[in-house]
Specification:
Layout: H1 11-17, E1 20-24, E2 30-33, E3 38-43, E4 46-50, E5 59-64, E6 76-81, E7 88-94, E8 105-110
Antiparallel strand pairs: 1-2, 1-8, 3-4, 4-7, 5-8, 6-7
Length: 111
């Protein structure tokens, strides 16, 4: 019919289109994630989340969020391409007043 659906794509292409994500504790430990993702605490409320492929041309979205059923509280989060390489994203967390504060977060990367 001239249209292209996901079923028409090669398996590798379908896998590349899936969002990648991570749920990270306030100490930088990965609670859960999509395949191949790692997380590390860099210090002073800075975290590095590394993905198995380049995320340079992708969109990043993060939110303060608990890693379990507890409430994480209010806060702020910023994300940007990491200076550590094309596969990494830097996440910075703050309290509601804007002061640096180690906070758990959820991060999604869509390419």
């Amino acid at each position: 019919d001239g249209s292209v659906s996901v079923a028409d794509l090669a398996p590798a292409t379908r896998a590349a289109l899936k969002p990648m994500w991570a749920v990270v504790t306030a100490t930088g430990t990965k609670a859960r994630s999509s395949a191949g993702v790692t997380a590390a605490y860099s210090g002073a409320s800075f975290y590095t989340v590394t993905f198995p492929v380049s995320v340079t041309n992708c969109a990043y979205s993060a939110t303060i969020g608990a890693t379990g059923t507890n409430y994480a509280g209010h806060g702020e989060v910023s994300v940007y391409s990491s200076p550590l390489g094309p596969k990494a994203v830097t996440v910075v967390t703050h309290d509601s007043a804007g002061a640096f504060s180690d906070r758990p977060f959820h991060l999604v990367v869509v390419c």
